[in-house]
């Protein structure tokens, strides 16, 4: 019963992250934070799954390395966007 509650909490975290990602697409910072929330829920699910099958937690370190790289890349895009356009609105720049 305890494992089921943890899986449900992870699923709710994942769904909230996806809902924020889909609905709040005006600011880049909110989109990046929702992506990090989704990554955090995937990390929790991976940690729960690996502990359930009694496997090594080495893959969690690899996942954390890639998620930190993703966060740093998103932050650098945010900083360069604010330097060039003055804000983080998606409407203020064009992709062309």
TrEMBL record:
The keyword tRNA processing does not apply. Its main location: membrane. The chain crosses the membrane at residues 6-22, 29-52, 58-82. It comes from the Eukaryota. GO terms for cellular component: membrane. The keyword Ribonucleoprotein does not apply. It is found in: Membrane. It catalyses: a ubiquinone + NADH + 5 H(+)(in) = a ubiquinol + NAD(+) + 4 H(+)(out). It is a multi-pass membrane protein. Belongs to the complex I subunit 4L family. This is NADH-ubiquinone oxidoreductase chain 4L.
């Amino acid at each position: 019963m305890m494992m089921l509650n943890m899986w449900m909490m992870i699923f709710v975290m994942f769904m909230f992250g996806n809902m924020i990602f889909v609905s709040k697409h005006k600011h880049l910072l909110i989109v990046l934070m929702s992506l990090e929330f989704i990554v955090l829920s995937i990390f929790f699910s991976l940690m729960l799954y690996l502990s359930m099958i009694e496997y090594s937690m080495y893959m969690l370190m690899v996942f954390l390395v890639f998620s930190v790289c993703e966060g740093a890349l998103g932050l650098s895009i945010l900083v360069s966007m604010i330097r060039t356009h003055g804000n983080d609105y998606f409407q203020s720049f064009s992709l062309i």
